[in-house]
Amino acid sequence: MPEAVKRSVGITANFLWDNTGYVLGADDKGKPERSAKTFAAFKTLCHAIGDGLDDAGMAAVLRFLDAWDPANAPDLSQWEDMVKGANLVFRLEDGSRSFVHDRPAVRAAWLDYRAGTAGERRGMCLVTGRDAPIARLHPSIKGVRDAQPSGASLVSFNQESFTSYGKEQSYNAPVGEPAAFAYTTALNHLLRKGSKQRVQIGDATTVFWTEQPSKAEGLMGEFFDPQPTKAV
């Protein structure tokens, strides 16, 4: 999935995926004017990255967004399920069953866009030891016990007492944008609902993995948190 944006109260769209308010311009929050703005932001971002791209999937998404009327959303067959906090993605009916955001040309366009909008501040990444654009904000980590539903930040400094040598926010612990994206994406995958690579012991949420794909990855989860067996 393309990297998720961090939101507070502003309107910022994700690329080729988001909730119904952004993707379809309709939701159940009772604020149609805001939904219209979120849909406009989503469409603008898709056009900014996809215009002129030689890819049938991206072209189909843009045609859909340009022709879509948010007033038709409640008529969709699974609208009641979608509007309850679901995120939507796009798939082209061409037999490949792949998502549009996974298509090579679209992925390349997204990475080029991200590189062009990377933070201007550069420095040595504490994770890789390489020079890189430093992430001002890190994506949120979801699935941690007692954290907010929207997720928690592992690297965050939001009070003056936490700053060091005038460095604010995540610049106080500089991590390059590629590394920030990599570790948060990996953690969110390990912490996903139904994951067998996470266990809750007391107030600690623990994740684990193997260096190479292996059936043993889920064994620790079964050992520490065995699932009840069903009677036959």
- What is the first-to-last residue Cα distance? 39 Å
**Sequence stretches where pLDDT stays below 50 over 5 or more residues:** none
Q: If helices are DSSP runs of H or I spanning 4 or more residues, what is the number of helices?
A: 7
**Strand arrangement, major sheet:** 1-2
Q: Which outline best applies?
A: globular
Using only C-alpha atoms, the radius of gyration works out to 20 Å
Question: Biggest sheet, in brief?
Answer: 2 strands, antiparallel
Mean pLDDT: 86
Which H/E pattern describes the elements?
EHHHHEHEEHEEH
What is the strand content?
5-15%
In total, the number of strands is 6
Briefly note the structural class of the backbone.
alpha+beta
Q: Helicity range of the residues? A: 25-40%
